[in-house]
Amino acid sequence: MPRSALPATVRAFAAADVGPDIRAALRPVMERLRRLGAPVRWVAEPNWHLTVKFLGDVESRQLGGIGQAVREAAAEVAVFEMGLRGLHAFPPGRNPRIVAADVTAGVEGLRALHAKLEARLQAFGVAAEQRAFLAHLTLGRVQGRGDLERLWKAAAEHAQDDFGTVTVGEIVLFQSELRPEGARYTPLVTAKLRS
Question: What CATH number labels 3-192?
Answer without folding.
Answer: 3.90.1140.10
